[in-house]
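Please go through this protein, sequence plus structure tokens, and consider how the sequence yields the tokens. Keep your notes short.
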Amino acid sequence: MSWSTKRIKLGACTVGALTAAVLAVSTTPAAASGTFSGRAYVYGAGIFSDDWGDEGVLSTSTHTYSNATCLWQKILWADGYLPYLSDVDGIFGSKTKSATQAWQRFHQLNDDGVVGKATFSMANGALLDNDKNGTVDTFDGYKYKTSIWRDSEGRYAFYDGDGQSRLAGYDYRTCS
């Protein structure tokens, strides 16, 4: 094989490797549903005190219309940052952003209005196991307690404003 042929093959391999690397980076779990975890739902396993440390981003531009946003709004409502249960609609708009910023300031977090790892982790601290069976069953807010739990597959669920049980998914919105 001539030196020229070897250079062409080496160049082709280099281009192929670079293309594969770019594709791998663009399809990492960070681009998937749960942003950090890559899961389609807010998820937990084992002891629930560290469940939400790897959850996704919720904001006015990421998972804006989702049941995961609805779950976050239930937390804001339970802590008194959204005044009405009707504000829990699964839409991360300006009202939810402002409430999130106030919640973040209270907890001495960066008040960017984006629910990321630090914000979700802080909220995790109010999850309770009231019946002491090892499963989450309540978010103990500053103003209200609200039912939040994990199903048998580790997916978090909650009751929406109409009393319907909903899974906290990132890719759809069925809560009301």
Observations:
- Residues 3-32 have pLDDT under 50 and may be disordered.
